[in-house]
Amino acid sequence: MDNMQDLATQSARDTQAGALPQLNVLLAGPRGFCAGVDRAIRIVEEALRRHGRPVYVRHEIVHNRTVVESLEAQGAVFVEELDEVPHDAPVVFSAHGVPKAVPAEAERRNLTYLDATCPLVSKVHREVERHYGHDDCHILMIGHAGHPEVIGTMGQLPAGAMTLVQSVEEAQAVQPADPHKLAFVTQTTLSVDDTAEIVAMLRTRFPDIRGPKREDICYATTNRQAAVKAIAEESDLVLVIGSANSSNSQRLREVAERAGARKAVLLPTANALDWSLLEGVRTVGITAGASAPEVLVDGLLARLRERYRLEIAERVVTQEDVVFKLPAGLAT
After folding, report:
1. What's the pTM value of the predicted model, to 2 decimals?
2. CATH architecture, domain defined by 35-115
3. Active site residue 233
4. CATH number of 4-33+219-316
5. What separation in angstroms does the CA of 171 have from each of 43, 141, 198, 199, 262?
6. pLDDT per residue over 223-282, tens digit each?
7. Catalytic residue among 46, 60, 127, 149
C-alpha cells in the first residue's frame, strides 16, 4: 500500500466485513527498504540486464530471502567466496561491504566486479582509513562479531589495527596500547540506544578518543527504530517483517519490546505467522526492516484479513527522500 488513501480505502472494505472480529493495526513509518538496499538490488538487476545470465553475487546482496530468491529467479547466483566464481563471469559485492582482500583477489583473477556496498558503509571504511593512516590511531569497532559489515570494515586495515567491542562490558574491559591514540566507529545497523551506552563508556574511560564527525548508524536504522518506538507502547504485539540474519530487523524487534510492546516477533514472511500470537491482542504494530520489501507487509495485512476486520492507522515519524546513485559504470 503506497499511501494513507489506500489504507483508508482498505479499512472501509474491512468495515464492510463486520462479521469478523476487529483488530487495530498500527503501521510504523518509515519501514522497509532503505536507499542502500534499493541501490544494491538495482546494481544486480542492471548487471543482469547488461551481462545476461548468470551474474554472481558474493554473499546475500541484502539479508532477505525474498529479495535473494527474486534475484535468483532473474539469473543471479549467490556464492560465499570468489573461488566459486568462474573466471569469465561478472560478480557483485554485497551491500554490507567486503574486506580489501576481496577486490584485490578479483583483480588478480581479472574478474569483472561491481561493488554494491552501501555508501554509508563506505563512509565508515573511509573513517577507519583516516583514523589509522592520518591520525595513527588504534580503532575500536562497535558491532557484532561475524556480521559481514563488521568483517568488511575490519578488513579495511591490517590485522591487529582494530578491536571489536560488542557491549558496555567489553567497552569497560578493553585495554588499548595507547589510550591517547584511539578512535571508534560503529556498525551502521545497531540499536541507537545500545550504541549510545557503549560510546558513553568509551568516552568516560578515554576522554581523548576520536569519533565520527557524523553518526555512523545510518539514517534508515535510526528512522525505523524511532518509528517502531512510536507504535510500541500502544501495541499488544509488534510484528517485524525481516530475516533472522538481518541485524537491523533484529534490532527493531528488540527496540519494540524495550519501548513498551507486550511482545515483539520477527517474521520472515506472512506465512510464518503463528495465529496463537494474536490471542487476546487488540492492537498489533507492524514494521519492516530496511532489507524487507513492502510486498511482505502487504502479504501480512492480507493474511490478517483472513480472520480480522482491520482498522489501520499509519504513524509516520519522518519522511525519507534519500537516493543513492548507481556506480559510474552502470549509471545511465
Report:
1. 0.91
2. 3-Layer(aba) Sandwich (3.40)
3. no
4. 3.40.1010.20
5. 37, 10, 6, 8, 30
6. 999 999 999 999 999 999 999 999 999 999 999 999 999 999 999 999 999 999 999 999
7. 149
